[in-house]
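User: Could you check the structure of this?
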Amino acid sequence: AQVEITPLDLVEPSLDTFITSEALIRITRIIHEDIITEEAIPHGRKQREDPTLEKGKTRIVQQGQDGIRQKTLRKVYADGELVEERVINQKVTQAPLETIVAMGTKIVIRTMTTPQGPIRYREVLQMEATAYYPGPESTGIWADGYTATGTVAGHGVAAVDPRMIPLGTNIYIPGYGVAEASDVGGAIKGNIIDLCFDTYREAIHFGRRPVSVYVLE
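Assistant: Sure, the predicted structure tokens are below.
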């Protein structure tokens, strides 16, 4: 019948089948369409310690950049109708470049004048301060007046999260004075510090406020 077919076309029955003149021959025209797409490969982030950089400061050593992945998508059409869609090839045309951040570890000792005299500190933490009185008004009927480290609670005692400020560390808080991190508390997590006062009235007056905590050398 002089009907041209391509290697992709489907012929039913097959070309090597013996047929009669009345047989119905069906040809399904198959077309492949290849589409190339690109997608971003997210870049990572890595931190490394830098002993030449002051603790608490950071510096970008290498700016990250997303990579590029190229995909070849093949769409298969049968008589103009989309019947299949699949990825036939993919490759990375540009590798991602991770961000590298230097984290300072160098301890720098500074001096500051306070109403209690000059202090030497190595770090300043921005925290939320609460206040308590070591009596039952603040700590419940089971309060015994002692801290977690065994010292007597009073002005100059601070309850901290040891992950933020190790127990035994001396600190200075403007508006409060010098204290020692010698107590803990169930509600003292993260950047929270609880300052002890000698009277319930003083604790209530102090309330809750943001403070700068100077970690002394």
